[in-house]
Amino acid sequence: MTSSDASTTQQPGAHQLRRSNSRKILHAAWDQGPVTASELIEATGLTRATVLNQAKELVAAGWLREAADTRSAGEYSKGRPALRYELDDSSGLIAGLDAGQHRITLAVADLAGAELLREEVYTDPVAGTEQRIAAVTELLQRTLDSLAAPRFAALVIAVPAPVDSAGRSPEHPEGFWQRMNPNWITALEPYAQLLAVDNDANLAAVAEMRAGTGGSFAALMVGERLGAGIVVDGALLRGGQGFAGEMRALSYISGVGNALGLGYLAREEAWAALDNGRASTLHREGLDARQVFRAAAAGDSLAGEILESLGERLARIAAVTAGFLGLERIILCGAMAEYLDPVLCIAHRELAKDPELAAVQLEASRLGADVALKGALANALDLVRRAAPFAK
């Protein structure tokens, strides 16, 4: 008997030990793909009897399935073929929900993390909490019905608000945080076995770390409002009530003055100039930030001035954020990221004027507009892995 199987007065009871052994076997199959009992023994340090018994129970519970044996898989030609086990990734579903101000997006994946479908609904940005809850619960129920699933194994919700360890947001003077997080942790409990709520920038930082970003950095959401997921020495910072990364202090920074996002400012500054009669190729009707960037690239002087303003502003934000926390880089995230190269060039030019700030690395995320959603799915999978095996 190996040390993992042995029972001593310090070890947990039989039920807890069986659960611990089941978790070791399940995680080994989760990480390695189809594995034989011998490979599971090597990976877990458990005895053959324990591995065979627990693997059989995991198959019966729907966590593992019997894969093609080694002969059928072309890996064995003589003697008795070895049975192989693999994660039954179709036996449960995880979900990430990006509950943004204007749009709510749901992504569903299997237990291997492969995305299966995506749905989205648009919402009134000033809608009350009851309307937002109704929109989300209808979306979740419709999706579960279409998949013939009673509920998700895990659901993680991304919100543009600080979130504490209990999944709740503090009060906001104008009620914005309450609208964005109308107690999702309670409202959505019927739809998932495991449930968590987190700040969207924090989840963007999670996605960046999963993509290989290490060290100390900020994942800065730059669309409508600024918010950062702060990672120091590989650890995500949260702070009291989830306030780490909130950018309200920018109101005290000269040349910044608020935490409004680059997308918001590009649109609003263009509107204001056009309303004042400024000549431009831009048109107020249907104007958005992307059109400002396209117009600047085509030589529109107003659009160029707006990007210049955004770049100078970004440089100040980067200097304060990176300098105070000793960050190595700031990654601009969200739907705006793919358009920001001109603004990044201006910001780098401004930072280069100060030798102490020239080392600050500013870059646009490569993870696209759904970076927070990717982080939510990653955390949902982690929730299941940490809790498994549980009764489905």
Automatic annotation (TrEMBL):
<protein>
    <submittedName>
        <fullName>ROK family protein</fullName>
    </submittedName>
</protein>
<dbReference type="InterPro" id="IPR000600">
    <property type="entry name" value="ROK"/>
</dbReference>
<dbReference type="InterPro" id="IPR036388">
    <property type="entry name" value="WH-like_DNA-bd_sf"/>
</dbReference>
<dbReference type="Pfam" id="PF00480">
    <property type="entry name" value="ROK"/>
</dbReference>
<comment type="similarity">
    <text>Belongs to the ROK (NagC/XylR) family.</text>
</comment>
<dbReference type="InterPro" id="IPR036390">
    <property type="entry name" value="WH_DNA-bd_sf"/>
</dbReference>
<dbReference type="Pfam" id="PF13412">
    <property type="entry name" value="HTH_24"/>
</dbReference>
<dbReference type="InterPro" id="IPR043129">
    <property type="entry name" value="ATPase_NBD"/>
</dbReference>
